[in-house]
């Protein structure tokens, strides 16, 4: 029995998707879903650009999970998956200007405006705890 590459990758990344969705983060899988969620958005939204890389597994997703345990958090929680949902990720990145494409990365938006952004290089060299503290500081500033 042969398995297609797409099916193999879908099976491989599902646990990485689940790591965020099980804590209440909504996946945006198409450009239309991204536009629907972010165009004319009111309130605050966290958008995680998920990835299969080691720093996403070791620092980014655990840091987001820890930050979301804080009493102050964004109104909306979203994720796109780089390399898997390519069109949705490209659409989400349009909202993150002037930052270049980066995965993993984490954006915080307020009333449709980007107010805080953590790029890949800020994930790679920091612990999940440091990322969580960075996000909690941004939540305290923008989500009250």
Automatic annotation (TrEMBL):
Checking InterPro entries in the record gives: BrxB/BrxA
Give the Pfam families listed for this entry: Disulph_isomer
Q: Which family does it belong to?
A: Belongs to the bacilliredoxin family.
Q: Give the PANTHER family listed for this entry.
A: BACILLIREDOXIN BRXA, UPF0403 PROTEIN YQIW-RELATED
What is the protein name stated in its UniProt record? Answer: BrxA/BrxB family bacilliredoxin
Q: Organism classification, top ranks?
A: Bacteria, Bacillati, Bacillota, Bacilli, Bacillales
């Amino acid at each position: 029995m042969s398995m297609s590459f797409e099916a193999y990758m879908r099976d491989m990344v599902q646990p990485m998707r689940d790591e965020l969705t099980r804590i209440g983060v909504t996946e945006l899988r198409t450009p239309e879903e991204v536009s629907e969620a972010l165009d004319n958005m009111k309130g605050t939204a966290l958008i995680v650009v998920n990835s299969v890389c080691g720093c996403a597994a070791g620092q980014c997703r655990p840091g987001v999970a820890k930050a979301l345990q804080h009493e102050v958090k964004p109104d909306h929680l979203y994720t796109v998956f780089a390399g898997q949902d390519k069109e949705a990720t490209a659409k989400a990145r349009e909202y993150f200007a002037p930052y270049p494409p980066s995965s993993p990365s984490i954006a915080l938006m307020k009333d449709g405006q980007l107010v805080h952004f953590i790029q890949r290089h800020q994930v790679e060299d920091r612990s999940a705890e440091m990322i969580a503290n960075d996000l909690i500081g941004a939540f305290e500033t923008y989500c009250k």
